[in-house]
Every structure is written in structure tokens, then in C-alpha cells.
Amino acid sequence: MTNESVQNTVLGDVEIIRVVEWQGPFAPAPDLLPEVAGELWKDNEGWLVPDHWEPNSDRAVMAVRTWVLRSGGRTVLIDTGMGDGHQRPSRPEFHLWRGDLLGGLARVGVSPQDVDVVVNTHIHVDHVGGNTVDAGGEWVPAFPNAQYLIPAADDAHFEPGNSEGNGLQPDDRLIYEDSIAPIHRAGQAVLWDGRHRIDEHLVLESAPGHTPGSSVLRLASGNERAVFVGDVLHSPVQILHPDCSSSTCLAPEQAARTRQRILHRAADKRELLVPAHFGGTGAVEIRRDNGGFILGEWA
Are strands 74-78 and 117-119 parallel, antiparallel or unpaired? Predict the structure, then answer.
């Protein structure tokens, strides 16, 4: 199910705009989160349906979206979705996908030339595909004036010429070659590690586990706080059971430790939690409860 809905809000001095590329039932819940008991989905059906779970098919409902942040006079994109027309032969659901990121951005008044910073929270198919566009058979940066902030650890892991690059998934080389390498060739890639400040309101921090360079972006403006967590979480059931990692996490135990750390801070600092793939509005407050966490209000 495609979904062109747009939603915007303001936190402090930062405007946040949600641009949805796709939303609907995706992976079977047991495949996506194999450590989550089936009873957990059923016990929480009242709030998981329809935005996060489709019980008839037992599929997790997910979204692919880009977050647009207007901060300090600049336009920042968080992740670029699946892109348009990329070869992904081992993933039929993504092969030659026809996304419309540029159209979605145009509908909220953002042209490719307007974008100053592109954040790739990590190098996966559904987070970097819109980095580039096909210009007569050659992949070139979609945002000609932007810096692309790419986690150095992911760049090293997925770059085909590196020693680790030989034992990855079949499409990983294609993803790097059509969505990351053109950014390097254009001189627009900025590799970072540990912590990287974008401006007075926005800071990137490493959050490894899902991938070696998986990262989060923290927003702090006035009294308002948010954390854009990429794929640290895939479904809100992981808020209830943060020890459960997804089947796509390369280092599940490390991912679980990172998830716990991110959730503890979000609860303590009252940060709005903004994952990449939650259905519905896509952002939620969390609270501590008996040593764990519960969901608060959806944004």
C-alpha cells in the first residue's frame, strides 16, 4: 500500500516533516522478530492493529520514510528510502522499485538543490537508495549541493574493495556501487565515527549492532528533545522487549545493548522516539515501568 501522507511538526526551532514512500504489511512477524513470542502480538492487538500488525496474515506493518528537518537555515534529510530503478535481484520486493522521494519532497516545497545535508543512518537498501538518480545510465547524487553524512564503520564494512566486503549479502555490492560510490566520486561524502555535530540542534551518534556503523540523530532545541533511531527498532513491540533484535541485525546482542541504552536515555531525557519504520505517525513517547518501558503518547 503506497501512502503519500505528509505530516509536519515543530520541536523548538526545528521543523520536522514526514515524507512517506511506502507503508503497509511487510515481513511476517516471526521472520522479522524471531525472538518475540507470538502471544505478545496477540496480547497487544488492541493497539498494534492496524498501524503495526496485520493479524490475519501475521505480518508486521511497516513504513519507508524520509524525515525532513529544517534547522538553522538548512534543510537536512534523514535517510532516503529505496530509490528508483535500482537492481536488487536477490530481493524481489525491492528489485527495480519505483519510489518517488523527489516527488514527495517537491510536495512539501523541497527541491533537490535545496538539500544541504543528507544523513544515512546506515547503509541498507531502504535507507540509501534515494541518494542517487539515474542520469542517462550513470548514477549521480540526487542532491547536488548536499553533504552526505555516512557512518565510517558502515562504509568500511560494505565497501566491496575492503576485506569484509567479500562475504556480504548478494545485493550489498550493488547497493554500495549505485548508492554510495557515486557520492564518493562526486566528493560529497563525509565519513564520521563516534559523534558528529551537524548544527547547534542536531548531533549524530554511533549506535552499532544493526550494522557496524548504525547511528542515531539527536535533536535538542529549547526544551524539546527527539531521537531519530533508524533501525535500532523495527516495531514498537521491541519497546516492551528491547532484548529482542530483528533478523536483519548483523550483531543481535550488540544491537540489544544499544537499544537498551537508547531507550533508557529517551525515557530519562523525555526524547520523542522516532524510528525509521514504525507504521502510523511513526513517533512515540516512552516511559519507564517496573524496570522496563511502556509506550506513551504517539506524536
Answer: parallel
Residue 226 CB neighbour total at 10 angstroms: 28
Q: How far is CA 118 from CA 25, 81, 114, 275, 278, in A?
A: 28, 12, 11, 17, 21
DSSP code of residue 270 = T
**How far apart, in whole angstroms, are the C-alpha atoms of residue 89 and residue 24?**
22
25-to-33, 49, 225, 279, 298 alpha-carbon distances in Å: 14, 11, 30, 9, 20
Is residue 79 classed as helix, strand or coil in its secondary structure? coil
Task: Please write the tens of the pLDDT for every residue from 215-244.
Answer: 999 999 999 999 999 999 999 999 999 999
Cell 528537518 belongs to residue:
69
Cα gap 34→136, rounded to integer Å: 42
Residue type, 297: E
pLDDT for 37-87, tens place per residue? 999 999 999 999 999 999 999 999 999 999 999 999 999 999 999 999 999
Distance in angstroms (rounded) separating the CA atoms of residues 171 and 169: 6
Q: What is the mean pLDDT of the chain?
A: 94
C-alpha triplet 232, 235, 241: angle, nearest 5°: 80
How far apart, in Å, are the Cα atoms of 299 and each of 187, 283, 284?
A: 37, 5, 6
Detail the DSSP E strand segments found in 41-114: 53-54, 59-71, 74-78
Burial class (CB in 10 A: 0-12, 13-18, 19+), 289: exposed
